[in-house]
Amino acid sequence: MKSLVLITLLHTAILGAAFAQTSADNSPEKAAVVANDRAYEAAYAKADVKALADFFSDDADYTTEEGRTYSGRAEITDAIRAGLMANRGSKLAITVDTVRVLGPESVLEKGSTTVTSKSGEASSSLYTVIHVKKDGKWKINQLIESPIAALTPRDRLEELAWLIGDWEEADKTTDLSVRSLYAWSRGGNFLTRSITVKHGGEVTLEGWQIIGWDPIEERLRFWTFDGEGGFADGYITRDGDRWLLRESGVTPEGGRTTADSTISKVNKDRFTWESTNRTLDGDPRPNIGRIEINRAKRN
Questions:
Q1: Boundaries of each DUF4440 domain copy (predicted)?
Q2: 116, 222, 161, 164: CA torsion to nearest 10
Q3: Strand, coil or helix: what is 23?
């Protein structure tokens, strides 16, 4: 894994180029680093050790997250070669966080990078890179790697934190209302939802939902229970400001159910919900069209 991380970082260093993609400043310095990035990606795909090493200055330093330092292009070349041999066919994904031009011949870049091996194993690191101009060409002069802090279940749930609070949906024609209260569990590692359905002011159904992080499947999972004895569970997939909840469940009578529900965030105080692909014991059931749900007004 460490050799995998090394290759990640070396590519990341070149990603000093990528900062130009997130900056409105299209200076010649940044444009040149971007061109280096594209060339480095091509060399990485070909496992071209010499081409990869040529992106570093002769006096470059590379420090791993364990504190080991490779000094000079020769040592870095050996490290690149060893990493490529140990991790044939790996893929790189880089996220640039910040970029700053220090001067006409130096650029500072920070970000994170992930290398995924052919077997699907992924390794991520943070990085800081200084690019310098040598004989008219931009080179990596210093690359420092640092570990990424492990994400907690709470961190994983942050994408749904906007739901915290009281929500309501009412149909005046039928005098039916649904109230949902989202809250953090004690310790903050789960989101809880309490559901109250009223008809004519009387509570006709209650339900509860728990949302958490599944460390085995590595995705958000939920469990839903209703006051009549039914229950369901499933997984949540995000697509921008939309979340797909794919579930299977059991009715109080023992029937088997499936459904795909979609939550779409409109703004901080409004979202829509709809349900499709609904079945009961394998037989299709009617879809539920889009319903608008608003944050409850404070009294």
A1: 34-140
A2: 180
A3: coil
The answer for 251, left when phi > 0, alpha when psi is -120 to 50, beta otherwise, is: beta
Pairwise CA distance, residues 52 & 11, whole Å: 8
Helix axes 28-45, 2-14, angle to 10 degrees: 150
Containing H/E element for 4? Answer: helix 2-14
Beta strand 122-134 pairing with 137-147? antiparallel
Kindly tell me the sign of the dihedral angle through the C-alpha atoms of 271, 277, 280, 281: negative
Q: DSSP 3-state assignment of 233?
A: strand
Q: 233, 241, 230: which is closest to 217 by C-alpha?
A: 233
- Specify the pTM: 0.59
Q: Which has more confidence, 125 or 99?
A: 125
pLDDT grade for 193, boundaries at 50, 70 and 90: very high
Sign of the dihedral through C-alpha 90, 95, 98, 103: positive
Residue pair 248/280 in contact by the 8 Å Cβ criterion:
no
- Single-letter residue type at 162: W
Cα torsion angle, 26, 29, 30, 34, sign: positive
Domains by residue range for the chain, with CATH: 2-147 (3.10.450.50), 154-295 (2.40.128.20)
Nearest residue to 262 via CA among 286, 240, 285, 232: 240
Q: What is the β-pairing status of strands 283-284 and 288-295?
A: unpaired
Alpha-carbon distance of 92 to 114, in angstroms, equals 6
Please name every residue paired with 279 in a beta bridge, in sequence order, or none if there are none: 258, 284
The per-residue pLDDT for 299 is 62
Using DSSP's 3-state secondary structure scheme, residue 78 falls into helix
Tens-place pLDDT, residues 8-58: 334 433 334 333 333 435 677 777 777 887 788 778 778 899 998 999 999
